[in-house]
Design goal:
It is built from three helices and three strands; from the N terminus they run βααββα. The protein is α+β, with helices and mostly antiparallel strands. The protein has a three-stranded antiparallel sheet.
Length: about 80
């Protein structure tokens, strides 16, 4: 188990969503996949993301996501 470093600057997932425009579910995936460093207090389900980890992630080139609605057949 990782230790929680509360002295290291961090923000909530809601704050990260507001700042970046990325979705809450995408942040959940990134945290579970260890692509972002963060933590949860044992008494809560709220994730916190270390700001330096988020800044490093955002500075990397990423492949853009799919365009348009998913799962619908193309219009004829």
């Amino acid at each position: 188990m990782n230790t929680i470093d509360t002295n290291r600057p961090h923000l909530t997932v809601a704050q990260a969503v507001s700042q970046t425009g990325l979705t809450r579910s995408y942040f959940s995936y990134l945290l579970r996949a260890h692509k972002l460093e963060g933590f949860r207090y044992p008494s809560t389900k709220e994730w916190f993301i270390y700001t330096d980890s988020l800044e490093q992630f955002l500075s990397q080139n990423r492949k853009p996501g799919p365009k348009g609605p998913r799962g619908q057949p193309p219009s004829a």
